[in-house]
Design a protein that fits this description.
This protein is 67% helix and 0% strand. It is mainly alpha-helical and 487 residues long. Among the domains are: 176-281, no CATH class; 286-463, Tetratricopeptide repeat domain (Serine Threonine Protein Phosphatase 5, Tetratricopeptide repeat). Keywords: Membrane, Transmembrane, Transmembrane helix. Residues 438-487 are annotated as: Disordered. GO terms for molecular function: misfolded protein binding. One of its GO terms (cellular component) is i-AAA complex.
């Protein structure tokens, strides 16, 4: 190597230009060094980026990945391990939101809905299986829970079996047979028969329970005392009313009437016993509960078209409310409705017009009581009772032939029904107005006439379908029919 070449290489190295390593004659690389003097407070500039590879094949290689989410460092995904989540850290939810906001919001919404449904299910289970059974020992409660489970599955056989086991366990644990827990368990046992529409079985079991309770009450009369006797009698009369309801469902109106009558007699006896209690003593019965017994039997008489008895019982129930309440409005309106439907006997001095006017007065009295009741005592029952009373007054005016007055009452009933949200009454008032308009126009057709007309139209259609001839009837073919044909 010449001296000029060596000098040139040293100069290029001093100017920080890369150069090929020079080789000496023996083939070993020549180490080139250069010394630079450090200047104080000088700044070292970063080297400018240079293209390291010029080959197109090398340039097509994938470049280094960059994180799409600036909140998540890319180093977390370069370890080769699956991504881990810590649900107790806020950073996890922040990263999930920035990864995909829409999916994160949807997932959170579904999580909230799931937790809400789970809370409702837990609350329903608590109020169905835990809270009602907390007074029972565990040996009894476990069979009741199983019975309720099988009842929900409509497995009646297993349900009845577990109720029987619960009753047996209660007897073995010497639970009081007159307590609300034991009697309630037996009522639940009879309620299964009602759900299966085996009303006769339900009546049989409840009759047995009522007889057992009355027998024990007579034996333990001194132990119970007056207040205890009233409490147990409250449960006995409630069972009796339930027996009557099941007998009505079983189409046994005769026995249902006897059962209701027994309930009324015992309720009157209870009223007398409770009235003799001092003010300091507990009174198990309320006037509303006693009135409900009278109202229940009045409804039975109304369904069986015994309007005289129904009117009397409705009045007795209404007189128990002092001062009058919103339920009094319903009862007085029922008195007027029964009086309007009652058929006058042949020897009755009252005519039909006088009867309707009397019914109208009861309905107007119900409306006056409804107007006198102010909030907070005034409830939705007052508004509904007032709507029904206005509608019934309109029907009375219609039967009296006063179409204009009837139309006015129906319009008032419809307006009030719309204001209080009483949909059924609103529709009925609209139908009544159409009926009044048809009567005034002379185009009204009664239900009986409409039924006859429809039957006549159907008969004509049947005749036209068979060619205008009556339908063919084949005589019964007997053993001698062929012989008669040959003759």
């Amino acid at each position: 190597m010449t001296t000029i070449s060596l000098t040139r290489s040293i100069a290029l190295a001093a100017r920080n230009h890369p150069s090929r390593n020079l080789r000496c004659i023996c083939g070993n690389p020549l180490a080139i060094t250069s010394r630079t003097q450090w200047v104080r407070d000088s700044i070292i500039k970063a080297p400018s980026p240079r293209r390291l590879h010029t080959s197109p094949l090398l340039q097509s290689l994938p470049k280094q990945k960059r994180s799409a989410n600036p909140h998540v460092p890319i180093d977390r995904f370069q370890s080769g391990k699956p991504r881990s989540y810590n649900l107790l850290k806020v950073q996890t939810y922040r990263e999930a939101y920035h990864d995909n906001p829409k999916q994160f919001i949807f997932a959170m919404f579904m999580g909230v809905v799931t937790l809400g449904l789970l809370g409702v299910a837990v609350q329903a289970g608590y109020h169905t299986l835990i809270k009602p059974l907390h007074n029972y020992p565990e040996d009894v409660a476990k069979f009741i829970r199983r019975a309720i489970f099988y009842e929900s599955k409509m497995d009646i056989k297993e349900c009845m079996k577990n109720y029987q086991r619960a009753i047996t366990a209660a007897e073995m644990l010497s639970m009081d047979p007159l307590s609300d827990e034991v009697t309630g368990l037996k009522i639940m046992y009879a309620g299964v028969a009602e759900k299966c529409h085996a009303y006769d079985k339900g009546v049989e079991w409840l009759e047995r329970l009522r007889f057992e309770m009355l027998t024990l009450m007579e034996e333990r009369k001194e132990e119970l005392g007056t207040v205890g006797w009233l409490k147990v009698m409250k449960r006995v009369i409630g069972i009796s009313v339930k027996i009557g309801d099941l007998q009505v469902l079983d189409k046994d109106d005769a026995n249902a009437e006897k059962t209701y009558e027994w309930s009324i007699k015992e309720a009157i006896k209870v009223m007398g016993v409770q009235s003799r209690l001092s003010e300091d003593e507990e009174k198990p019965w309320t006037m509303l509960e006693i009135a409900a017994i009278f109202e229940n039997m009045a409804s039975f008489y109304e369904r069986t078209n015994k309007f005289d008895y129904a009117t009397t019982l409705y009045l007795q129930a209404a007189n128990l409310f002092r001062p009058p309440s919103c339920h009094s409005v319903i009862l007085l309106n029922n008195v007027g409705a029964c009086n309007m439907q009652r058929r006058l006997p042949s020897g009755e001095p009252m005519d039909r017009e006088t009867q309707l006017e009397s019914a109208k007065k009861w309905m107007e009295k119900a409306i006056d009581i409804s107007k006198s009741i102010k909030p907070p005592e005034r409830t939705e029952e007052c508004d509904h009772g007032c709507v029904v009373a206005l509608h019934n007054i309109g029907e009375v005016e219609e039967q009296l032939g006063k179409m204009d007055e009837a139309m006015t009452k129906f319009q008032e009933a419809q307006s009030l029904a719309f204001a209080v949200g009483f949909t059924e009454a609103y529709q009925n008032a609209g139908f009544a107005q159409e009926r009044i308009k048809a009567k005034q126009a002379g185009t009204y057709e009664s239900p009986q006439d409409r039924r006859k007309r429809e039957e006549e139209e159907q008969r004509k259609i049947d005749e036209a379908r068979t060619g205008g001839l009556p339908p063919l009837t084949l005589s019964k073919i007997g053993p001698g029919s062929k012989k008669r044909d040959r003759d």
